[in-house]
Design goal:
The structure is a single chain. The protein has about 350 residues and is an alpha/beta fold. It has two domains: about 30 residues; about 220 residues, 3-Layer(aba) Sandwich (Rossmann fold). Helix content is about 50%, strand content about 10%. The chain is built from 16 helices and seven strands. A hairpin with a 5-residue loop joins strand 4 and strand 5. Helix 4 packs parallel to helix 16, helix 5 packs parallel to helix 12 and helix 12 runs parallel beside helix 14. The protein is globular, with a radius of gyration of 22 Å. The termini are far apart.
């Protein structure tokens, strides 16, 4: 009798859980939530495997979040007939990923490094996500690979599996609790701002693009940078960063690879702060001079100089196509990375 009751309870529990999940999914879809992929170490490691494609068939991209939005991968691949391997990470410096590729004797490909100064030249922040991704990739097991291929098709079909917005920790983090002194609030980005595709490109939804209130919500998050006590890197610490980048670039070039740098658009107070804290001559120009690499700064090109980021730091999908088209044109014009 007890076994029979326990069995009925188990079935009831399964039914209740299933009903809750179906209801939650329908609710999220009714709100306009789009399905996307969690941009964690698992997805990054999957893409990291792709850097070994023949150098004439692929170009690797590293950087911070801007290149994840501003590079339209479909446009790039259509115009160049090469695969875009997107290894950039949000809220991160690409320097540790650059070192990881430089120290990998099997990597001999073409690399584009996007520079967001406040992260690229930061010696204290921006390494948490890259270090986690690199560590996961180095210790990746066959069972983890199998789990990835089983999990991702499911994840791509259900909105409620969004780890960044609808997991328990994300929902708790989004509660509007008064801030305490010296405690940074949860970065509550609108759900339509940071949709991640399977190729790791980020896109803004049409609803986000049309809603200036959501733009202002993201701008307010960027405004928190004013509270960051980390000063711009100068002097010997900057020399150390430059020397590390020069060393990594030289390693890649010595194996037959190639490297160029890009600087993607920003606007408003974000751009003014960047120009004030990281003068172009002292950072960007020096980076190109010491590495001996070509660089493409968005404001040097009439087409990309006119692009406007709705929240001051990232392009819409439409403008990402414009930016990517201009970037490819510049690469071919300068015969950079072997493009003709």
């Amino acid at each position: 009798m007890q076994t029979h009751v326990s069995g009925k309870s188990a079935v009831l529990a399964v039914v209740l859980v299933a009903a809750f999940l179906v209801s939650w999914e329908l609710f999220l879809r009714h709100k306009g939530v789009k399905k996307d992929y969690d941009d964690g170490p698992e997805l990054w490691a999957h893409v990291r495997d792709q850097v070994y494609e023949p150098s004439d068939k692929a170009v690797v991209f590293i950087g911070s979040s801007r290149i994840k939005y501003d590079l339209d991968i479909a446009t790039w691949e259509s115009l160049t007939n090469t695969h875009a391997v997107q290894l950039a990470m949000v809220a991160s410096s690409p320097r540790h990923i650059l070192t990881n590729l430089a120290d990998d004797p099997k990597f001999k490909g073409r690399l584009i490094v996007d520079v967001t100064e406040v992260l690229f030249f930061n010696r204290m922040r921006g390494n948490t996500y890259p270090d986690a991704g690199i560590a996961y990739y180095k210790d990746l097991t066959p069972s983890q690979r199998a789990s990835f291929y089983l999990d991702k098709p499911v994840e791509g079909h259900f909105a409620f599996l969004n780890e960044g917005h609808y997991a328990i920790n994300a929902l708790i983090g989004g509660l509007h609790i008064p801030d305490r002194p010296m405690v940074y609030p949860f970065l509550d980005f609108p759900t339509g701002f940071d949709v991640t595709l399977y190729n790791r490109q980020n896109v803004m939804t049409a609803d986000f693009i049309a809603d200036t209130n959501q733009h202002n919500q993201v701008k307010a998050i960027w405004g928190l940078l004013r509270m960051d006590p980390t000063p711009p890197t100068t002097g010997k610490p900057l020399d150390t960063i430059m020397n590390s980048v020069v060393r990594d670039v030289a390693k890649i070039k010595a194996r037959g690879g190639d490297v160029i740098f890009t600087r993607t658009p920003s606007n408003g107070f974000f751009l003014m702060a960047e120009q004030h804290m990281y003068p172009r001559e002292a950072y960007w120009d020096r980076l190109l001079k010491e590495t001996g690499c070509k660089g493409f700064f968005y404001s040097d090109n009439p087409t990309t100089a006119k692009l406007v980021c709705p929240e001051f730091s990232h392009l819409t999908p439409k403008d990402a196509i414009t930016y990517t088209t201009a970037l490819v044109s510049l690469l071919k014009q300068d015969k950079a990375l072997g493009f003709q």
